[in-house]
Design brief:
Alpha-Beta Plaits, 2 domains, two-stranded antiparallel ribbon, TIM Barrel, binds iron/sulfur cluster, about 40% helix, 8-stranded parallel β-barrel, 13 helices
Length: about 325
């Protein structure tokens, strides 16, 4: 069971990206990381993406169980936003394309966002000298989409609740609870709420749920984990520490700026997460292999990618399990 990974503090979740709708990349990512020993995958809430992840699990030819989580968000949450270019303002300088970490900006006479690849990191917004790029929330109808995904076989639903709108948070959470009675995850960070309000929100959201039926994804800085530095992961550890000190009956998963330093820093700070979730950094270290058209059949290249992924997983889990 998925809960066993958390009970044993052996959880490692690969975040494919709540906004990553690229079926080819998701299948490749899951194949590589499943082969490397990752048992938990977080994907965008779309049937074709769940299918792609399941194909990746099959490709990996691993007998031990693999678990899938789908991510949904609310207005304002960066994980479900997509960039959009105002062509009237654009001077075709190309700065956005250069900075995009996910190859999500195409150029064919004009610069355009590839919505399937855009993960909502907003790096292009900061880079644009013309203020020509806006971020737009992409909200799905939970009642319509989630039952289809549950039918396909998922193990967890993750609710991205990075918003100051308490009413919206409560209503969407209620909807999810009515649709799904399995393990749920709430993704939160400290960017909008102070520590006190954050803990109050979690207490309220879990009040009607059984103890340890909820995972709290303690986000540092969402989608910031491109660099393997201590500073990048500091917020994730601090947020996990906040939840650990609250002693609430939840599992704690660190995310948002996570890298190879995360669980080591957590250990140094006396923070004991049940799981580590890695997204941007995990994708970055195998990026060259993800771009190879023959990666799933090129045994040598696939093994190289798996070795890189395995090193990240083993280092991270090793720090969580060794006292
Ligand atoms: S920089 Fe980030 S937000 Fe902009 S297009 Fe690329 S992935 Fe999307
Ligand atoms: S950075 Fe802004 S102005 Fe330059 S190409 Fe991109 S959208 Fe256009």
């Amino acid at each position: 069971m998925l809960k066993d990974l958390f009970e044993q503090r052996k959880g490692f979740k690969l975040v494919c990206g709540a906004g990553n709708e690229d079926v080819v990349e998701v299948e490749r990512l899951v194949t590589i990381y499943s082969k490397a020993g990752c048992a938990f995958f977080d994907v965008c809430a779309k049937p074709e993406i769940v299918e792609a992840a399941k194909k990746g699990i099959i490709n990996s030819k691993i007998d031990s169980p693999r678990y899938l989580c789908v991510s949904v968000g609310i207005a304002g949450d960066p994980h479900i936003t997509k960039a959009s270019i105002n062509q009237q303002k654009c001077i075709t300088c190309g700065a956005c394309k250069t900075i995009c970490p996910h190859n999500a900006i195409d150029f064919k006479e004009k610069f355009m966002i590839n919505k399937e690849r855009c993960i909502g990191c907003s790096k292009c917004v900061s880079a644009c000298p013309q203020k020509a790029i806006n971020m737009e929330s992409k909200i799905i109808d939970y009642k319509k989409v989630l039952p289809q995904l549950i039918e396909k076989g998922i193990d967890c639903i993750e609710f991205h609740a990075i918003s100051t709108d308490e009413k919206d948070v409560d209503e969407k959470w209620q909807e999810i609870n009515e649709i799904y009675n399995g393990l749920l995850c709430i993704s939160l960070d400290r960017s909008e709420l102070g520590d006190k309000k954050l803990i109050e929100r979690v207490k309220r959201l879990i009040s009607s749920r059984k103890d340890f039926s909820t995972i709290i994804q303690a986000d540092g800085v969402a989608m910031s984990g491109n660099n393997d530095e201590w500073g990048t992961t500091l917020q994730a550890v601090a947020t996990a520490q906040l939840f650990q000190n609250s002693k609430l009956p939840v599992y704690i998963m660190m995310s948002g700026g996570t890298n190879t330093k995360s669980t080591e820093l957590a250990k140094l700070c006396g923070v004991k997460p049940h799981c580590l979730a890695v997204g941007s950094f995990a994708r970055k270290i195998v990026k060259n292999y993800l771009e190879m058209d023959d990666i799933l059949t090129n045994e040598q290249a696939l093994n190289e990618a798996v070795k890189i992924a395995k090193s990240l997983i083993d280092t991270s889990v090793g720090n969580m399990t060794n006292d």
